[in-house]
TrEMBL record:
Gene3D superfamilies: Ribonuclease Inhibitor. SUPFAM superfamilies: L domain-like. It holds the Pfam family LRR_1. It comes from Aegilops tauschii subsp. strangulata. InterPro entries: Leu-rich_rpt (IPR001611), LRR_dom_sf (IPR032675), LRR_Rcpt-Like_S/T_Kinase (IPR051824). PANTHER family: LEUCINE-RICH REPEAT-CONTAINING PROTEIN DDB_G0281931-RELATED, PROTEIN KINASE DOMAIN-CONTAINING PROTEIN. One of its GO terms (cellular component) is plasma membrane. This is LRR receptor-like serine/threonine-protein kinase.
Length: 161
């Protein structure tokens, strides 16, 4: 366990706390809107709780995030548009987050650092954009249990096995 003194040096106030992990608890209710004001945050993990949707649009302010993990949302429905400017992401996990959208709503070609993309267990519809398969660093792609259609792109990034 981290000593209180050491923790206070790393996280002297909630506004400067990094990373922000609250996974695998029994939290309920809405994801707090104030998280969108913590604009220096680089990691946010909220999966494994019972937060209610929708995911707050204010999270779109977190453009310095390198890792975003939100999952196990109950009720509500969210768009993926809030991640559109989070182009520093290396990990994007929105598994079971009540996303109802198309993959075309996000310009994935801007996410050149993305190594992990997990959008499984949502209500994502439409076709697979080639831009996801062209991401140079993408190694892990999970899109199962959605309503995607059409054919898969003909080419893929070498890291995507």
């Amino acid at each position: 366990m981290t000593s209180p003194v050491l923790y206070q040096r790393r996280c002297p106030s909630l506004r400067t706390c990094q990373p922000w992990w609250a996974s695998d608890n029994s939290f309920t209710g809405q994801i707090p809107d104030f998280l969108g004001s913590l604009t220096n945050m680089t990691q946010l993990r909220l999966q494994g709780n019972s937060f209610q949707g929708p995911i707050p649009r204010s999270l779109s302010n977190l453009i310095k995030l390198t890792s975003l993990r939100i999952g196990d949302i109950v009720n509500g429905s969210s768009s993926m548009a809030f991640v559109g400017n989070m182009t520093s992401l290396g990990e994007l996990v929105l598994r079971n987050s009540k996303i109802s959208d198309t993959l075309a709503s996000v310009d994935f070609s801007k996410f050149v650092n993305l190594t992990l993309l997990d959008l499984s267990f949502n209500n994502i519809t439409g076709q697979m954009p080639q831009s996801i398969f062209d991401l140079p660093m993408l190694s892990y792609l999970f899109l199962g249990n959605n309503s995607l259609s059409g054919s898969l792109p003909a080419t893929k990034s070498p890291l995507l096995a």
